[in-house]
Amino acid sequence: MRMLIALYRPYSDWALSRPKAVLGIALLLLLTTLWPLARIGGEFIPALDEGDVFTCPLASGISTAKASELLH
């Protein structure tokens, strides 16, 4: 335990002596997660030009060999 305390103590002392810096770092980390968080759950469909139609020619449950045959 003494070794762990010796490793941990400088960081805890720094954090406790600089609460504004710790809050600033926490806020910065939170803000950097907003952009990826806004993208989570989005479905990927490529951008379509006007008049283009997006279709998926394969039915679900088709074998890999049959799908390869159909796509060629």
Summed over residues and divided by their number, the pLDDT gives a mean of 82
Low-confidence stretches: none
Global geometry: elongated
Radius of gyration, taken over Cα atoms and rounded to an integer in Å: 26 Å
* Helix segment tally: 3
The main sheet comes to: none
Distance between the termini: 65 Å
Q: What class would the helix/strand composition place it in?
A: mainly alpha
Please provide the count of β strands: 0
Helix content: 55-70%
Percent of residues in β-strands:
under 5%
Order of helices and strands: HHH
Please outline the helices and strands.
Elements: H1 2-17, H2 19-39, H3 64-71
Polypeptide structure, described:
The protein is mostly helical and 72 residues long. The protein has a domain at 1-39. The protein has helices at 2-17, 19-39, 64-71.
Task: Provide a short characterization of the protein structure.
The model has no long low-confidence stretch (mean pLDDT 82). Helix content is 62%, strand content 0%. The protein has helices at 2-17, 19-39, 64-71.
Keywords:
mainly alpha, 72 residues, 3 helices
